[in-house]
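Document type: protein sequence-to-structure record

Subject area: structural biology

Format: plain text, a pair of labelled lines:
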Amino acid sequence: MNEPLDAAHLPPGVRSRILRHVNGLDMHLLEAGEAGRPLLLLLHGFPELAFSWRRVMVPLAEAGYHVVAPDQRGYGRTTGWSASFDGEIQSFGPLGYVRDALALVAALGAGQVAGVIGHDFGSPVAGNCAISRPDMFRSVALMSAPYGGPRPWPKGEQAQAEAAAGLASGGMNEALGRLDPPRQHYQWYYSTAEANENMWHAKQGLADFIRAYYHHKSADWAGNKPFRLTGWTASELAKMPTYYIMPAGLGMAETVAAEMPGPDEVAANRWLPERDLAVYAMEYGRTGFQGGLQSYRCTTSGLVGAEMRLFAGKRIEVPACYIAGASDWGVFQKPGDFEAMQTTACADFRGAHLVPGAGHWVQQEQPEATVAILLEFLRGQSASRGRDGRSD
């Protein structure tokens, strides 16, 4: 049976517990603040954990909220899911994660969520919660991954069957493979049977793999200077760093090993000290990465697009904002989504904030700035819906 995370790993004021029988899961969660206060639900990404929110939970709780961060399905100390590559992946689809969130809210005894806040993979989960159940999720903060909205249905009678689009189409990965030198899209790599073993038992060791991966995507890596891409073409996507558009023939472990920080850089790191890195290594050392990788398989197989088409033409109606690091390529990795989020996907968009001094891991790299933006957003929801707080 899974057990809570030892309090020695957590900041004072953050508690760990297991909530049994939540949509078929025994769900591990971290929480701060008192039950009965307005609920904030914090949803992590890949390869993250509830632990990734450790630096923002207490300040949010001190502002008057009950702050809850679960290990999502496929991660950490939450159990009840299968790590088999050949197992079912339907439960790892977008509506599966929405059901998990709804079940958790009910198990907590809360009537609704004041704010659902998602980072990386957790950002589309949060967006899907808001678009599908606005009565339950009263506002949404999207972090790192912009929410471009569900793919529309084609209009009128079609002369031929609709082709797969975006990452559901293997055509982009094939086009990347024809470049010189040949490349591969990381989400297609993550969808292979080899990806879990490559990272879990990386030649450099698990802790060093995680260190290099986190460093490579952070503001500490000098090469992270993102800019808008002109379109969804192989030549444009290949302008991104190798953690997104990988060298063909290499695994992610080998790809990020080339960017491993030196001992002085590691010693100078204040947002991911060795004691915190050890928690990630401990947790992923137990579980491997396959649980988190299942959601990428849902993307490349087309399951994500098919499920979310239930909401084609629908916008997020509740107040929404976006937060990312100014050095985060996640802002632009899907050309057009950053703009669509602000103009079409969200009906009440209240600002896009690109935080200086942060890369992909904005709530870990710059927690104070992240908290300040979130609190301004949460406190400003009573302002007129016509207010335009957009900035980029």
Observations:
- The beta strands are 15-22, 25-32, 39-43, 66-70, 115-119, 140-143, 183-185, 245-247, 320-325, 349-355.
- Residues 94-107 form the longest helix (14 residues).
- The CA atoms of residues 170 and 352 lie 31 Å apart.
